[in-house]
Specification:
It is built from 13 helices and ten strands. It has 276 residues and is α+β, with helices and mostly antiparallel strands.
């Protein structure tokens, strides 16, 4: 097998030893490097030009993509990524990986030496230790909602500390991290909060008590979607529900105003089955 074919089967980058196992000779690799058809990000690694730059960076630093960086790559909800987060594979320092956050320690699951992306289980463990509680909870619930794992599987793993508490707090019902954050910030209420409740043939983001509905709009709340949402809001009002509709930005950047709206509605009894 030629080197370019072998590399194309491993996302464009592989260890030299893995290529040798596929029958790619050192001479063929050297010839490809000299011709500019291959690149060597670090000793022991060979890649195709144009390979995913994050994979190239991980190989260059002798590390593995992990924590919120790999969470984002897995399609999980990540509010803000301050810098690349890497898991240490070999002795790595901040000097050799400038601008990166390095996560030390033995990973929960052993790592294949030929991969550059951490397993979901390791990613969630680092997220639990690295991120603020509500951000970590949002990422964990995103993994559950996407069915990448289950609470029963996570509970069987030897997580400790914050990760163990996240297992107890997480649910698979939040469609986005913003919903996880909303529920977390109101968990002190002594009122039932149901995520993704079905009312009048539609799902609502939250049903607080018996009659208070909270909808959180994302970037798709425009055009036909907005018309459909407005029609559903009207039906809810006609059926005795009180609807509060807020935007993602408000939850993340103007929480006091959102909480004030919810508290004002509760104070007026809009959450009750029959208002006083």
């Amino acid at each position: 097998m030629d080197s370019r074919t072998a590399l194309s089967r491993s996302r464009g980058i592989a260890r030299s030893a893995a290529l040798a196992e596929l029958g790619v000779s050192r001479h063929a690799i050297d010839r490809g490097l000299a011709a500019g058809l291959l690149v060597r990000p670090r000793r022991g690694w060979i890649a195709l030009p144009g390979t995913d730059p994050e994979l190239l960076s991980a190989a260059e630093h002798g590390a593995i993509l992990s924590c919120i960086t790999q969470a984002r790559r897995l399609g999980l909800w990540v509010h803000r990524e301050d810098r690349p987060h890497l898991g240490s594979r070999t002795p790595v320092t901040h000097t050799s990986a400038p601008g990166c956050k390095i996560h030390w320690g033995t990973p929960l699951l052993p790592r294949d030496p030929h991969v550059l992306e951490d397993s979901l289980e390791n990613v969630l463990g680092y997220v639990a230790a690295c991120q603020p509680w509500e951000s970590a909870l949002a990422i964990w619930e995103s993994a559950l909602n996407k069915r990448l794992t289950t609470l029963s599987r996570l509970a069987r793993l030897p997580y400790t500390g914050s990760a163990r508490r996240l297992i107890q707090a997480s649910t698979p019902f939040s469609d986005s991290g913003v919903e996880s954050i909303f529920r977390t910030r109101l968990r002190w209420l002594r009122i039932r909060i149901v995520s993704q409740a079905w009312i009048d043939g539609h799902r609502v983001d939250f049903l607080i008590g018996e009659r208070l509905v909270v909808q959180i709009d994302g970037g798709t709340h425009v055009g036909p979607q907005r018309t459909s949402d407005n029609q559903h809001d009207a039906r809810l009002h006609l059926n005795g529900y009180h609807v509060i509709r807020v935007g993602t930005w408000q939850v993340l950047e103007d929480w006091p105003a959102v909480q004030s709206s919810v508290m004002s509605a509760i104070a007026q009894g809009f959450h009750l089955g029959s208002r006083p």
